[in-house]
Write a structure and sequence with these properties.
By secondary structure, the protein is of the alpha+beta class. It contains six helices and seven strands. The chain has a four-stranded antiparallel sheet, with helices on one face. It has a three-stranded antiparallel sheet with strand order 1-2-3, with no helix packed on it.
Length: 206
């Protein structure tokens, strides 16, 4: 039996008198739903506590990556002389068959893997400083690695304490976390343990 991968549902969208979006009442299979979509939280989420950063362009040239195959077996080349560029404001996809090295390339670009890697990495036309790059970037891996016994808010505060400078007060960090949770529509599960989140919620939290 084939596995169900996705379901597409069409919900008619209409605007109310105040201009806000409303989901029209729909009857499907005995279920009815009426939901008002609040956009005010998103408009007010200005991330005022975050420093303003310039857009980031990433370029790599002659990227080569090899892994050891064991004693006396030598090395296997995973990536060989790969070059490319990721421009800010654009959505870029990495395509290829299983084993082509897509995950290896992402791990290298994110700075997650640095051993046995040769080539040039450039960020905004300057050689990449790995320590600074890790501060200004976020790598969301294929698997969701979250601490299962922490609430959503606690997990976010843990990340904020690790990422944001010590000069930022705890109150400012809490305000920033609340803004991010509102933007990601996670306010309703703010005090829910991450182990009890849905797949989509866990991905957004990651």
């Amino acid at each position: 039996m084939a596995e169900l991968l996705s379901v597409q549902v069409h919900v008619p969208i209409v605007k109310g008198e105040d201009g806000k979006l409303l989901e029209k009442k729909v009857a499907t299979g005995g279920f009815t739903r009426l939901k008002k979509v609040e956009n005010s939280a998103l408009r007010n989420a200005e991330f005022s506590y975050l420093p303003k950063r310039r857009a980031v362009d990433i370029e790599f040239k002659g990227l080569t990556y090899s892994v050891s195959e064991g004693r006396k077996k030598g090395y296997k080349t995973i990536l060989k002389c790969i070059s490319g560029k990721f421009c800010s404001g654009q959505l870029t996809g990495i395509l290829g068959p299983s084993g082509a090295g897509k995950s290896s390339l992402m791990n290298i670009l994110a700075g997650y893997r640095t051993k046995s890697v040769t080539g040039e990495m450039v960020v905004n036309r300057k050689p990449r400083d790995l320590r600074k790059f890790r501060k200004m970037s976020c790598y969301i891996m294929q698997d969701d690695h979250v601490l299962p016994h922490l609430s959503v808010f606690e997990a976010m505060m843990c990340s904020a304490n690790l990422k944001i400078t010590e000069k930022t007060s705890q109150e400012e960090k809490k305000s920033l976390v609340d803004e991010i949770l509102a933007t990601l529509s996670l306010q309703e599960c703010k005090h829910t343990r991450t182990i009890n989140l849905s797949g989509g919620q866990r991905k957004r939290l990651s």
